[in-house]
Predict the structure.
Amino acid sequence: MLADPGTHFKGRYEVEMKFRVEHLGHVRRRLDQSGAVPFALDNVETDVFFDFPDGRLEANHQFHTLRQMRPSGRVLWISKGPAADQCIAMDLSDFDRAAEMLTSLGFVEMRRIGKKRDIYFTDEFHVTLDDVDGLGPFVEIAVMTDDRNALAVLRERVREAAGRLDLLRFAEETRSYRQMLFG
């Protein structure tokens, strides 16, 4: 049963697997055949990473990202870390005002990443098909939860979902796009 789309991005923890693929067409076909529900298609996303000028958040494995999605119009503020699965996101209404607010609090833009992204829902998972500027095509399968004790079980369920999408034949990529592009 498909979960309510409003619940797909709620939780304090995110379990995900990411795969570098040759092209996105085969995964898109499998998603369509499985009855996955498109959520946001043909979006161009810009992720702006903010930190204090001394880089103290990144040094503590914390990452604050302001994400603008077009044409969907979504704006997200995403906080990841310091624990590997820790992730909190919230919807905002205005990208430029949010950036101004962060700047007024002493944050500075550290990096910027662009990508084309399609998002699908299948069962409790969200599946993203990404074409990342400077890196190429990737597929991520993820689920969010507030239950820290469920993380091990969810990791196995994400792996099973990856198998159903024929992704396990590709090497899993454990680094973030930020790490791949900027070290």
